[in-house]
Amino acid sequence: MEKLESQFLQDKQERNTAMIDVLQHLTAIKNETTFGFEDMRGEFRSLFEAYDEKVSVYKTQVDNITTHLATSEEEINNRIIKTMEELERVQSEQEERLDTCRSEVNSLRTHITNLETPIIRLVNMSQQWPVPPSTCAATQVLTAASGSIAVVEAGKYDNNIDCEWIINLPAGNKILLKWIYIDMEIKDNCPYDYVTVKNLNTNQLEYGNTMCGPLLPNNLLIESNRIRIAFHSDGSNTGRGFELHYLGTE
Fold first, then answer.
1. Are residues 143 and 180 in contact, defined by beta-carbon separation less than 8 angstroms?
2. pLDDT of residue 131
3. Nearest CA to 223 among 142, 109, 114, 107?
């Protein structure tokens, strides 16, 4: 009996010891599991924080790109608008210039048409010119609707002579000049021998200046009914002078 009780107590103690070991083992497992979960939680937390940080960075970059794209689109639109406005301005200027050119061409056509008839008349008259030219003799006033002017009829003019012809036609007339020849001493600015044509209504020299040498002046329709043609020679070097025909036209 005592032996059984002793055996029972020994078994009980062993069982208690074994249960204590089991509880300690379970406690250790629990602690290890708890520590493992805490470590995993920390890692997950770190991962989520890093993820949130990257998401925030990406979001900022996306916002910047969106803003840049919006700004670029606005700049492009503004440039397109400015380009279109510039094209419209250039087109308008070109149209204005084209209108001006058309107007000038029409005006020139009208002028040529107006000039054509008196030129033809003058050419026809010059081919059959019956009246001898009015030659150099001080001051002469010509009132005929047409005529011829020359320094001399033949040969060369004298040194040191001055003469002038004043063509005086009724108001409203214009005077057309047709040069036949010019032959006098040549020098820059014509300081020696020369001829001038002056508009007596504007007091301005036609052709811009004095004329000399052998170069034939252009035929000219003068918008005036009164002009003065003057000739001068110095003390040396002479020539044939000049000859021209004039015609008055309304």
1. no
2. 66
3. 114
Q: What are the distances in angstroms from CA 232 to CA 46, 148, 193, 203, 241?
A: 113, 18, 5, 19, 10
Q: Determine the 3-state secondary structure of 240 from DSSP.
A: coil
What's the topology of domain 131-249? Jelly Rolls (2.60.120)
Task: Note the pLDDT of residue 128.
Answer: 47
Q: What is the DSSP string of 125-194?
A: HHHT--SPPB---SEEEE-SSEEEEES-SSS-PPSS-EEEEEEE--TT-EEEEEEEEEE----TT--SSE
Q: Phi, psi at residue 140, to the nearest 5°? A: -125, 140
What is the per-residue pLDDT for 82?
A: 81
Q: Which residues of the chain have pLDDT under 70?
A: 1-9, 11-12, 15-16, 18-19, 21-23, 25-41, 43-44, 47-48, 51, 55, 58, 69, 110-131
Q: Are 200 and 227 within 8 A, CB to CB?
A: yes
For residue 150, what are its two tokens? 């020359």
Amino acid code (one letter) for 242: F
By C-alpha distance, which of 143, 126, 149 is closest to 196?
149
Domain boundaries, the chain: 1-128, 131-249
Q: Which residues pair with 168 in a beta bridge?
A: 226
Taken as a whole, the chain contains a residue count of 250
- CA dihedral over 161, 151, 171, 224, signed as positive or negative: negative
